[in-house]
Amino acid sequence: MACENINKSRLLGCKTGFSGIKAVGFLPFANLTLTANDTFEGVGITGSIYKFYLKNDGNTYTEEIVSDRQTHTTVYNGTLNLVLPSLDRETRDQVKLLAYGNPQIFLELYNGQIQLIGAELGADLSGGSITTGGARTDMSGYSLTFTTQERRPLVWLGVTGSTAYNAAINVTGAITPA
After folding, report:
1. Beta strands in the chain, from DSSP E residues, in sequence order
2. Distance between alpha carbon 71 and the CA centroid of its chain, in Å?
3. Average pLDDT of 121-134?
4. Residue ranges per structural domain of the chain
5. pLDDT in tens, 130-150
6. Could you write out the DSSP letters of every residue in 66-101?
């Protein structure tokens, strides 16, 4: 197979960026299908997506590109850090289920984009903590770290993918932390 090579330049855009993760959607692992240009258009969502709203600067996603000249391989290692303020039993139970599974995770960004991580192999809840602070203003809640290792970088959702994502969100019986 011929190697793919860079084929476009990149200009400097306007200062319109707005960063941050507004919400995440967890899909119990499913066999999702990506398009030829690595976009998700909704094929393979068979169950509910469970949406967690976020409101903290500690929610970040980083993806590291790891290439090995010796083996001629490239992987994309992703790390998603989430902070869920407030301790409650129902969230604890859902965190436990996330630790047992390997969900695909949708990232809803403040700029309106939706991205998908763990599209092929899912994400692992690889670490985290349940914390109650010592001072009255300290954080009390859940800090979670999910990791991914994929053949492709994170995936953007196309128009039909966004529609399928929104249609699959299940907020019935949603948790309202105290």
Report:
1. 21-27, 39-40, 50-53, 60-68, 73-85, 104-109, 114-117, 124-132, 140-150, 155-157
2. 28
3. 94
4. 48-168
5. 999 888 888 899 999 999 999
6. EEETTTTEEEEEEEEEEEEES--HHHHHHHHHHHHS
Burial class (CB in 10 A: 0-12, 13-18, 19+), 55: exposed
Q: Is the pLDDT of residue 11 over 80?
A: no
Residue 8 is predicted with a pLDDT of 80
- Over the stretch 42-65, which tens digit does the pLDDT of each residue have? 999 989 999 999 987 899 999 999
Of 59, 112, 48, the residue nearest 82 (C-alpha): 59
Residue with tokens 């192999």: 121
C-alpha closest to that of 147 among 97, 109, 99: 99
